[in-house]
């Protein structure tokens, strides 16, 4: 596995792949890798001849008072995991390689769906995400890029960016990797206490219960989500949002067929997110 530190070396590596007619898949990450990231790597390996992963904690997607400084940085462990997963190259830039001028003078603004769900609690977060992802796409020039469906809003915002800014690549969404009792894998799970870990799978149970009740159609969507939130709050969660939307994250209308239920809730100090797509 080749470790690449600079934008110039990355461009050289990319041209070599192009000269050999090899297709490149890209997995952008902020490091602190777990099985969920490795499932993105596996999906990427099925999409292309070469896989490159970036490990970069992007400062512009963290708000004031958020955990940029304390975000776990585990470079050596991450490199070992990627080596074992047979990744071809890993890009581990310093901030100056990605942001020649910091703070950047020119940024990308995410579309309207960035203001709902997670974006409500984190203003500017998705602008930071689309800014760094567009920079990484310009540097890597991948044929395909893989993102997890667990961060469904992020995936949707990035799909819109690719369409609206005419990026020439395919975005591949990868289904959520789950641990025991269907708990969605996340770096944050390791910060749960043993008691919170026992409770955490209730989140997925709430999603399946909301799905079943929507399909039964005996209550309105508002009634269903309000009840489910109240249940979770009683169990010890602090629900930020629990919403059913159309799959493109617009409000459900009588003709919406592809729906998604999305949740964000805090358990102690840990914020968990998850979602479930379904058809009706
Ligand atoms: O999902 C993440 O880890 C980050 O938001 C991403 C896409 C790597 C951009 O920094």
What does this structure look like?
With 280 residues, the protein is an alpha/beta fold. The protein folds into two domains: 2-174, Rossmann fold, CATH 3.40.50; 187-274, Pantoate--beta-alanine Ligase, Chain: A,domain 2 (2-Layer Sandwich), CATH 3.30.1300.10. Helices cover 39% and strands 20% of the residues. It has helices at residues 7-19, 35-47, 75-84, 95-98, 118-121, 125-140, 152-164, 194-199, 202-216, 221-235, and strands at 2-4, 24-29, 50-55, 89-91, 144-148, 170-174, 238-246, 258-267, 270-279. The protein has a six-stranded parallel sheet with strand order 1-4-3-2-5-6, sandwiched between helices. α7 (152-164) links the parallel β5 (144-148) and β6 (170-174). α6 (125-140) crosses α7 and α9 packs antiparallel against α10. The protein is globular. 36% of the residues are buried. The model has no long low-confidence stretch (mean pLDDT 96). The site of pantoate has 10 residues, from β2 and α6. Pantoate binds at residues 28-30, 58, 61, 129, 132-133, 151, 154.
């Amino acid at each position: 596995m080749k470790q690449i530190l600079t934008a110039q070396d990355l461009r050289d590596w990319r041209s070599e792949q192009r000269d050999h007619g090899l297709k490149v898949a890209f997995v952008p990450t902020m490091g602190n890798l777990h099985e969920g990231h490795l499932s993105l790597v596996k999906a990427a390996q099925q999409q292309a001849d070469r896989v490159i992963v970036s490990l970069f904690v992007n400062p512009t997607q963290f708000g004031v008072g958020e955990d940029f400084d304390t975000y776990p940085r585990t470079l050596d462990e991450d490199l070992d995991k990627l080596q074992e997963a047979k990744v071809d190259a890993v890009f581990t830039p310093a901030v100056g390689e990605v942001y020649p001028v910091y703070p950047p003078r020119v940024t990308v603004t995410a579309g309207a769906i960035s203001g709902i769900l997670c974006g409500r609690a984190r203003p500017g977060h998705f602008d930071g995400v689309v800014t760094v992802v567009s920079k990484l796409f310009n540097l890597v020039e991948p044929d395909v890029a893989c993102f997890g469906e667990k961060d469904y809003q992020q995936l949707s915002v990035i799909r819109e960016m690719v369409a609206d800014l005419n990026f020439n690549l395919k975005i591949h969404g990868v289904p959520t990797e789950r641990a025991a009792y269907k708990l969605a894998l996340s770096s944050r799970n390791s910060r749960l206490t043993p008691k919170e870990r026992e409770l955490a799978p209730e989140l997925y149970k709430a999603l399946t219960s909301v799905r079943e009740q929507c399909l039964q159609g005996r209550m309105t969507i508002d009634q269903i989500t309000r009840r489910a939130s109240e249940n979770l709050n009683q169990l010890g969660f602090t629900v930020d949002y629990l919403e059913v939307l159309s799959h493109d994250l617009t409000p459900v209308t009588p003709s919406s067929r592809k729906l998604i239920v999305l949740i964000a809730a805090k358990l102690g100090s840990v914020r968990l997110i998850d979602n479930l797509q379904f058809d009706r």
